[in-house]
TrEMBL record:
Domain KAP NTPase: 62-188
Species per Swiss-Prot/TrEMBL record: Sphingobium limneticum
InterPro entries: KAP_P-loop
A Pfam family annotated for this UniProt entry: KAP_NTPase
Protein name in UniProt: KAP NTPase domain-containing protein
Amino acid sequence: MTSVTQIEDEFYRQLHPVLSHPGMKLAGAVSKGLLKAAFKIDLNSDGKDDGTISPSLPELDLRTGLDDPRGRLLVFDDLERCRIPVSEVLGFVNAYVEHEKLKAIIVANETKVMEGDETYLEIKEKLIGQTLEVLPETQAAFASFLTLISDQRTRDFLEEHADVVLAVHAEGGRGNLRTLKHAMWDFEKLSRHFEKRHWDKSPSMTKALRGVLATSMERRAGKMVEADLERLVGNTFSRIFHKEASAKTTAADEIDDRYKQIDFDDIVISVGVLAGMLFRGDVDGDAIRASLDASSDFLQPEEQPLWHRAHHTFYGDDDEADIVAAQVEHAFASGSVKARGQLMHLFGIRLWFSTLGLIDRNRQQVVDEGLAYIAKLEDAGEIAEIDRSSFDRDNSFFQTRVIDETTPEYRTLADAYSEASNRVLRSKYLTIAHELIRRLPCEPDEVLLDMVVNNVRSAPYFDQPILAALPPEYFVKCVLGWPPKIQSQALNILHGRHELRHGDMLTSERAWVTRVDDLLTAALPAQRPMSRERLRAAIARKLTPLRPTSDTSAVGP
């Protein structure tokens, strides 16, 4: 509620035998004016007490004209959610208690009330006669929530591990039974896709249970966004380095500190699967099972990727660290690592190992050797073309952040790979442009979505000047040979690509568009009358405004 008048109106609605009928609730709040006209109640009597803490005292006498309220309780629920200032609400309640001699109960999350009003405790001391703390019956609630789990294997597992569930809930300190219920449901969403080989490893499933419960409760409490989850799960090293460098504590750090019994680097479920379920409602059984199978709990040590084993040397002994460091150096020297994600992880790991003294290289040598490695891959045609979607990142692969990913040395290597990938893409511009031109008459909408920023899907070429690789004469010849509708759509695509002017990314193509404009304009006299007028109008609307100095005076219909 936003004003005390709403409270007064609600009292009358509930006390009056007609207004309190369930059907009347659909009519909404009853205004004071309607009440005054219907019941002849004096709503302007001055009952205000100059000695009270709030001027917002009730103007309505609950004992006048309606059911006798004596013997009833006034219950004010969810005080912390009320948008009326706390001092004003409490003064309003106190007026009924002191002047009308009624009884009142206020139900509230006192912690949140205190966060919103520093004067609350002082006011409370004067007004509140007795405080009772309500604590959740977590065990009883858990037993009830179990009956809501439909998957039998999950229900049995949760019942067997009730102590784990209750411990995580207590450690989170949320105290909210609703978040516990939803966290159990979230675990079921994933666990119904587990297979027998997964359930047979009960300790691994227990780690998954802890991780899902904690992240679900933090998400539902509004304390964690997707970026926090990515920093939390599988990224202890990155968070430690970031915290040391910035001297700042992140939300992920706070969550990690809160759950002492959970190692968020070892919860079996990948951060990608968790994020999909918690933030987008994605539950893919194949992805869930693949996530489990790729974890260190289900992979044999010899099956684990080298970068993964290197990450986990933090938890091994020194002999193991020496062995893995030697394996990293051998793989690097042999040039056996080709995949971008694995390579970027090894770049970060070598920088880390260099700092620790595990390899006989300083950080600049690691950078120089990394740059040479990238150059060899490019010469061999083995540089990967980076996904042009907005979800591509160069600091996180396989749902795991790269060690040292924020350092200048790593950024140098990541940028060098990106540049090499861009060179690979630029070498394909002519082929890509020809393919788009070939598809345009049959799939104009798909070509538009590939080339122009839109709300449907990622446009892989929106910022790539691929058309500039085509001779403008060739493009003009194609346009003149297309049917009128396709001509219009082709020029619409050019206009859509350039009207927003995405920085300087399409600069070289803008000069190409100007040349296309000149060639099409020069071809107009040779066209038949209707085609000439239609094409002239399209050029004036779509191409001429893109010229450095536009002349739009001859825009057609």
